[in-house]
Design a protein that fits this description.
Aspartate Aminotransferase, domain 1; five-stranded mixed β-sheet; single chain; 2 domains; alpha/beta; seven-stranded mixed β-sheet; 40% helix; Aspartate Aminotransferase, domain 2
Length: 406
């Protein structure tokens, strides 16, 4: 397989730099494939299919003897640019983009499990991930076990049964629980399990799971990667073996393809992702420190606060506290809703990782599907809010929160 798979060969390509590029440079330059027109920006290829110079070329292309785009459900020049760019930023061998974050999450497991297999997962996770693991996979005869916390003995016990995959979400959504990626990966690899990390809340900027021992990284690119509320997308990153032998056969035949237009939006978004995430993380730190000082707030969950139960671990495996804050009010749901309705700058929305600050009530929105018992197990009460901090100036966000609290 060539360095630029599937025919993505820029015209008049210059020699590659002879030094290791910084991730921010990758976010602007990697994967760029100009057409014969020499456009400055990345081209948008909206076509569904591709032509061949001869029947023989079509034959060799489908036989994978020739690098050539076949069909945009399989691969597309614009999508390939996004995949190569994100892989370079992440430090992964390969990337496969999908139409949504949940399609990437489902594919990450569905491509490797079969009847009789066992999956171990962190107990704190996004509601749809919980549904996939605890409701959908069991219909295929796949068993599961959920693990709380970071006790190595508890994880080792869960992994004492033959395990095909381990799925961990860290930080978790919405209460920012932290899982020790290195510890879990070391234990999982002893039993031959594939470790998949949902890195959505941290983003590729603040956490590098592959460097911490994970095998696969999963994203909802809808969040920080786009980060501007425009498109749905997902991504899986890992080794050549995992991507080409497991993921690609699954996604090519089941069809969770990303649109070329959405891929083009994401390519442009990657250019500013580092700057956006760093500023959002700085804002979130300031907002979290403010919220912790208010008597109306019972507790604040933010990995950048020393009060976070896993503060030291978060410092070890993350380069920043993140952009999302878990807030537990000292009042009931009625008081929480009254506070939300008084906000003037921060929007009420169930998205996160956006340039605009967004707040939601997980129990009645994002995690409603789980029901009260599972919510209680996760610590998601009627008094809990999730605040995704955006790019507004932190002083305006604090003023907005202050007037709503008052």
């Amino acid at each position: 397989m060539s360095k630029r798979p599937w025919g993505l060969q820029p015209l008049n390509e210059r020699e590659e730099p002879q030094w290791e590029l910084h991730p921010q440079t990758h976010s602007v330059r990697t994967g760029l494939a100009r057409s014969g027109f020499g456009e400055t920006s990345e081209a948008l290829y909206l076509n569904s299919g591709f032509t061949y110079s001869s029947a023989e070329e079509a034959f060799s292309s489908f036989a994978e003897e020739t690098d050539h785009f076949l069909y945009s459900r399989f691969h597309n020049p614009t999508i390939a640019m996004f995949e190569q760019r994100l892989a370079a930023i992440e430090g992964a061998e390969y990337c496969v983009a999908t139409g949504s974050g949940m399609s990437a999450m489902f594919a990450s497991l569905a491509c490797i499990v079969e009847q009789g297999d066992h999956v171990v997962a962190s107990a704190a996770m996004f509601s749809s991930c919980h549904v996939v693991i605890t409701e959908m996979l069991p219909k295929w005869g796949v068993t599961f076990e959920l693990v709380k916390g970071n006790d190595p003995a508890v994880w080792a016990k869960a992994l004492s049964k033959p395990t095909k995959a381990v799925f961990i979400e860290t930080p978790s959504n919405p209460l920012l629980e932290i899982v020790d990626i290195r510890m879990v990966s070391d234990l999982a690899h002893k039993v031959g399990a594939t470790v998949i990390v949902d890195n959505v809340m941290a983003s590729p900027i603040l956490q590098k799971p592959l460097q911490l021992g994970a095998d696969v990284v999963m994203y909802s690119a809808t969040k920080h990667i786009d980060g501007q509320g425009r498109v749905l997308a997902g991504a899986l990153l890992g080794s050549r073996e995992y991507i080409f032998e497991k993921v690609l056969p699954f996604v090519r035949h089941t069809g969770p393809a990303l649109s070329a237009f959405n891929a083009w939006v994401l390519v442009k978004s990657l250019e500013t992702m580092e700057m956006r995430v760093q500023r959002m993380s700085e804002n979130a730190q300031a907002v979290a420190e403010f919220l912790e000082s208010r008597k109306e707030i019972k507790s604040v969950r933010f990995p950048g606060l020393k009060s976070h139960p896993a503060y030291e671990l978060a410092k070890k495996q993350m380069s920043g506290g993140g952009t999302t804050i878990g807030i537990e009010f000292a009042g009931n749901q009625e008081a929480v809703f009254a506070f939300m309705n008084k906000l003037r700058v921060i929007d009420i929305s169930n998205n996160l990782g956006d340039s605009k600050s967004l707040i939601t009530h997980p129990a009645s929105t994002t995690h409603r599907r789980l029901g009260p018992e599972v919510q209680a197990e996760m610590g998601i009460t009627e008094s809990v809010l999730r605040l995704s901090v955006g790019l507004e100036h932190s002083t305006d966000l604090i003023k907005d929160l202050t007037q709503a609290l008052n």
